[in-house]
Amino acid sequence: MLFQVSLLISLPNFQTFMKCFLCSFVILIVLISCKTAARKDSVGTADTALQVKGAAAKTESLTKNSNEAVMAKRQVPVLCYHRFEYGRNDDYTVTPDQFDAQMKILKDSGYQSILPDQLFDYLLYNKPVPEKSFMVTFDDNRLEHITIANGILKKYGFKGVYFIMTITIGKKNYMSKEQIGQLAAEGNTIGNHTFDHHKVTEYKEADWQKQVVEANQTINEITGKPVDYFAYPFGINDHTAAEELSKHYKLSFILSTKRDSLQPTQMVRRMIVAHNWTPQGMLKVMRSTFSRN
Ligand SMILES: [Zn+2]
Predict the structure, then answer these.
(1) Which residue, of 50, 101, 121, 166, has the fewest CB within 10 Å?
(2) How far is the CA of 234 from the centre of ligand 1 (A)?
């Protein structure tokens, strides 16, 4: 107070005082307006976040869907392939040209490939997937999966799922560790198809260890990623096996048979593509197979 009075006494000092006062006032106003603007921004961000959350809440759920809800969801078509060769004409083989034509018609019809992580989030948490989603899977670790199929998938911008029978790794006509590692590094998913293709319905405790736990370890050492997906050898399955598999895998894949309503995540349907179907025929069978219950 004394200081202010003494300032007011002499005029030059008073002018300096007023200058300082005005400066401080201006600075104060600027600070207040900045703070208000910042608060407005943060309110805006919070509102937007709430709106986004609200929109997502309509389709996504934070808690896992019940088995009933998983069973009721629209199925995503999952194609299953084994061999790519000319001249075999058996149920497990398509020619490279047929495979190319099948991927082409999917692309031309607007289909997009998805991977098991997306399928899992869609089935369990209702995360959206493209309207025309499909998945393409390859069983048994055949060499032509990387020398033929992978190139065709790349041509159409698709990714695939490779189910490895681990006993074959590095053998003649099968993929090596490096080739499997390359597929994983390129963003494809590598799953387990057991150690040596024994039916899961016949497993004793030691078999579970060898066919599931150890085979998972082998694949994990190659890819550096968790092994969350399984394909039943021959598609053969039962409820007891599905219960056991549910301890190890997010999803397990059967063939075009009946699903288990009590273990739907461990019985996700696939369809083997026959060598004598036209690309249009494949689309037709695909649509009917995955609209059945
Ligand atoms: Zn197989």
Answers:
(1) 50
(2) 6
Residues 230 and 253: beta-carbon distance below 8 Å: yes
Separation of 193 CA from ligand 1 center, angstroms?
7
Q: Which CATH code of 3.40.50.2000, 3.20.20.370, 3.40.190.10, 3.40.50.300 fits the domain covering 65-289?
A: 3.20.20.370
Coarse DSSP helix, strand, coil percentages of the chain, rounded to the nearest 5 percent: 55, 10, 35
User: Cα(128) to centroid of ligand 1, in Å?
Assistant: 30
In the chain, which ranges are continuous DSSP H helix? 2-9, 11-57, 67-72, 96-108, 116-125, 144, 150-155, 177-185, 205-208, 215-223, 239-245, 279-289
CA of 44 to the centre of ligand 1 (A): 54
Q: How many CB atoms lie within 10 A of CB 222?
A: 22
Domain boundaries, the chain: 2-56, 65-289
Per-residue pLDDT, 15: 54
Per-residue confidence (pLDDT) for residue 26, from 0 to 100: 43
pLDDT at 226: 98
In the reported structure, the alpha carbon of residue 187 is separated from the centroid of ligand 1 by a whole-number distance in angstroms of: 22
**pLDDT means per 10 residues in the chain (293 residues)?**
42 48 44 39 35 50 93 97 95 96 98 98 98 98 98 98 98 98 98 98 97 98 98 97 98 95 96 95 96 90
For residue 258, the SS3 value is coil
Q: How many Å lie between the centroid of ligand 1 and the Cα of residue 156?
A: 25
Task: With beta carbons less than 8 A apart as the criterion, state whether 210 and 255 touch.
Answer: no
CB atoms within 10 A of CB 34: 10
Residue 178 CB coordination number (10 Å): 10
